[in-house]
Amino acid sequence: QVQLVESGGKLVQAGDSLRLSCACSGFRFSNYAMGWFREAPGKEREFVANDLTYAHSVKGRFTISRDNANNTAYLQMNRLKPEDTAIYYCAASTRLTTSLHEYDYWGQGTQVTVSS
């Protein structure tokens, strides 16, 4: 069955860096675009990055990458800010899109907390 498993989330301080991983199985990883989304308390889930595009709020600080040989996607997050605190989700889509509604598969999420 399809599985996306995020890892790497934790409590960090403002200015720190963190790398999230998304291990995928059950589908042809190389045929899918990967995206990262986040959901902060009381807010809607929002787009963070996909293989080509970044949200304005993270551009220049976050970098998405992927290892097709190991079916894993990554999100490198630098210069973290308290407003980056959220549950981070990876997702897979057959389309390169920023719309969460167009993603077919989702992970369970990993918590990132940035203290000031």
Main beta sheet strand tally, sense and closure: 6 strands, mixed
- Helical percentage: under 10%
Shape: globular
Any idea what the radius of gyration is? Answer: 13 Å
> Pairing-aware structural class of the strands and helices?
mainly beta
What is the strand content?
A: over 45%
**Helix segment tally:** 0
Distance between the amino and carboxyl termini: 40 Å
Q: Mean pLDDT score, rounded?
A: 98
Ranges where pLDDT stays below 50 over 5 or more residues in a row are: none
DSSP strand count = 10
Q: Give the ordered list of helices and strands.
A: EEEEEEEEEE
Helix-strand layout with pairing:
Elements: E1 3-7, E2 11-13, E3 18-25, E4 33-39, E5 46-50, E6 62-67, E7 72-77, E8 86-93, E9 105-106, E10 110-115
Parallel strand pairs: 2-10
Antiparallel strand pairs: 1-3, 3-7, 4-5, 4-8, 6-7, 8-9, 8-10
